[in-house]
């Protein structure tokens, strides 16, 4: 079911962009504007907390991160396309996804359905990824009913005693989970589940595409960079090969070197703001005290998560539509500040 949902996500980026059968529920309030609808009672996760394994790495906040409001897409300090108009960057990315240019340009009174479909699919993918992540981390049954995932790790002891331990996976060897989330991101969730009880119902209710851009180098993918570490920082080196008179002779040598690893491949990165109804609470197992999140008896709160996705595209020899790979979550709420690979 989880794999199927991600296949649907990838199929949605075909020429027809078919939507998922189940839509994200309509929101109870308007958009993603920064309203003072009450500060969340939960404490937002910060970088300083990452060393504390008794705290779950999770941002529970009704406000979008400042960098999103400032239109910072974490595309890299030396990405030359950051100077280009946003619509041009979106057009380039859309071409990689087989979306026609006319369906990207802003047209009065015309709604781009592909953006809504893509955002809704991202919300569903996020939901299923979190379901599998929680099941893997806490080894407890996670309910998923009518688009609401629900986890209470305090019920896990009986479940663990009654399951086949050969079926228990870590985040590293869970193939399904690794097909949905980047391994570097999964390392951020290396916690000791025995020290905490997590109570965490989550329901995506609205999603909006925030950023969409293509990595501006042919053949540059995360897999290629991981296999050839010297390529990392390539955009910086290309930037250094540029002077006031234009690109020098080294630019084309570098470009050829990068492209030889797969000149027909490309990488598209997208970010979606996903609004959810959420109850988030972490209790210390020994004391039973709330150490992070909401107090007992609190109502679910409306929060927003910024989720980053990445996909590799590949050109065909006949010049037809590009082949779109599998979308994968590479960052959640800026835990890795975009998880750049280039």
Question: What helical percentage do the residues reach?
Answer: 25-40%
Oligomeric state as shown = single chain
- Describe the global form: globular
What is the H-and-E element order? HHHHEEHHHEEHHEEHEEEEEE
Largest beta-sheet characterization: 5 strands, antiparallel
Distance between the termini: 33 Å
DSSP helical segment count? 10
What class do helices, strands and sheet pairing give?
alpha+beta
Using only C-alpha atoms, the radius of gyration works out to 21 Å
- Strand composition percent: 15-25%
User: Which regions have little confidence, pLDDT < 50, spanning 5+ residues?
Assistant: 1-5, 10-23, 25-30, 33-54, 157-166
Structure overview:
This protein is an alpha+beta fold. The chain is built from 10 helices and 12 strands. Strands 4, 7, 10, 11 and 12 form a 5-stranded antiparallel beta sheet that branches. The chain has a 3-stranded antiparallel beta sheet with strand order 3-8-9, with no helix packed on it. It has a two-stranded antiparallel sheet with strand order 1-2. Strand 1 (143-145) and strand 2 form a beta hairpin. Helix 1 (2-11) runs antiparallel to helix 4. The two termini are 33 Å apart. Residues 1-5, 10-23, 25-30, 33-54 and 157-166 have low confidence and may be disordered.
């Amino acid at each position: 079911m989880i794999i199927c949902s991600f296949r649907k996500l990838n199929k949605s980026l075909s020429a027809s962009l078919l939507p998922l059968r189940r839509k994200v529920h309509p929101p109870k309030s308007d958009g993603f504007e920064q309203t003072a609808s009450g500060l969340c009672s939960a404490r937002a996760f910060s970088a300083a907390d990452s060393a504390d394994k008794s705290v779950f790495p999770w941002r529970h906040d009704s406000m979008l991160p400042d960098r999103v409001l400032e239109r910072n897409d974490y595309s890299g300090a030396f990405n030359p396309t950051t100077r280009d108009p946003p619509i041009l960057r979106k057009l380039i990315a859309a071409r990689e996804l087989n979306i026609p240019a006319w369906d990207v340009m802003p047209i009065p009174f015309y709604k781009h359905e592909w953006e809504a479909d893509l955002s809704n699919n991202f919300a569903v993918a996020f939901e299923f990824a979190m379901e599998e992540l929680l099941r893997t981390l806490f080894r407890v049954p996670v309910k998923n009913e009518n688009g609401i995932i629900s986890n209470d790790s305090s019920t896990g002891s009986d479940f663990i005693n009654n399951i086949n331990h050969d079926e228990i996976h870590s985040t590293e060897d869970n193939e399904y989970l690794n097909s949905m989330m980047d391994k570097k991101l999964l390392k951020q969730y290396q916690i000791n589940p025995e020290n905490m009880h997590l109570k965490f119902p989550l329901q995506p209710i609205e999603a909006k595409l925030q950023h969409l851009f293509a990595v501006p180098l042919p053949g540059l993918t995360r897999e290629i960079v991981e296999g050839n570490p010297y390529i990392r920082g390539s955009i910086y080196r290309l930037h250094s090969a540029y002077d006031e008179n234009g690109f020098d002779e080294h630019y084309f040598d570098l470009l050829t070197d990068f492209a030889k690893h797969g000149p027909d491949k490309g990488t598209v990165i997208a970010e979606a703001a996903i609004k959810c109804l959420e109850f988030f609470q972490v209790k210390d197992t020994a004391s039973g005290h709330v150490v992070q999140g909401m107090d007992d008896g609190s109502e679910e709160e409306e929060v927003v998560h910024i989720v980053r996705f990445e996909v590799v595209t590949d050109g065909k020899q006949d010049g037809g539509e590009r082949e779109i790979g599998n979308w994968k979550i590479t960052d959640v709420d800026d835990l890795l500040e975009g998880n750049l690979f280039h």
